[in-house]
Protein: Uracil-DNA glycosylase
Organism: Hibiscus syriacus
Amino acid sequence: MPLPLGSSLRSLKLHPHPTAMAAASSKTITDFFHPNPATAKRRKLTTSSDYQPPSSLTAQQKSRIELNRYLAKSKRNLKICSQKVEGSRYVKLEELLLEDTWVEALPGELQKPYAINLCKFVEAEICNSGVSVYPPQHLIFNALNSTPFHRVKAVIIGQDPYHGPGQAMGLSFSVPEGVKIPSSLVNIFKELKQDLGCSIPSNGNLEKWAVQGVLLLNTVLTVRKQQANSHAKKGWELFTDAVIKTISQKKEGVVFLLWGNSAQEKSKLIDQTKHHILKAAHPSGLSANRGFFGCRHFSRTNQLLEQMGTDPLDWQL
């Protein structure tokens, strides 16, 4: 019925319908704990069992989601680097370090005098030497672009990149899929199988380790084709020493796997009161039998991480 002119809502007195009052008064306390099945069914439609909120995911599911997220980020960094290099004869080194967390952790490092000289040297080698330089430009900082600073759990230190065609990919010991697995990496896989029972993979791409938080860092990041150590003592060691020092100073609980004398020399850069160092012989064919086989560094790394409350690494490739 329409309101009379001059009336207001306040003047209205609402009286509940007798039927509604009867329905309300007929409810007992058990009705609140055992609702009508039809009502419960309607409620269930809004919380379908097909949908899982983040809190209901298992630890393994969460880990897989996180791994895929960082793998996608790594590939995005790689794609941007490739686009920068495409059609260019040379791209400045500082433009190829894309991972923001490392740029923040190493402020101004590539603007220091030694790094400027290093950049000039690498440019001359790529543009004027007439010899191929490995890895390709877009992969020079692949280790840092694949493993964000805040994700670093372990560090495996290598020397200079592989110097054969198509081998180097900017990750220590790693080679792209389709490339013959080098002897050192074959021995790493053998030890991994003996240590953790991991099956030996069909290729030598260690990208899965990198995105989980294993920094695969060579001490020298470029090399001439078929000329091992040709870019040593040109400035790269100062840069990678800065990376190691930064991890030591700004992080805690990182496990450093130092294989061979060259890698073990870097132990002086690491604060052993904050971090863990595992030493063994180099996995090369010449020395693997003199202390690399049987070192069990992969299981020991996981034990140390778990003792610190950090998720272990999935070493299976």
DSSP finds twelve helices and six strands in the chain. The two ends are 76 Å apart (CA to CA). The longest strand covers residues 154-158. Residues 60-308 form a domain with the Uracil-DNA Glycosylase, subunit E fold (CATH 3.40.470.10).
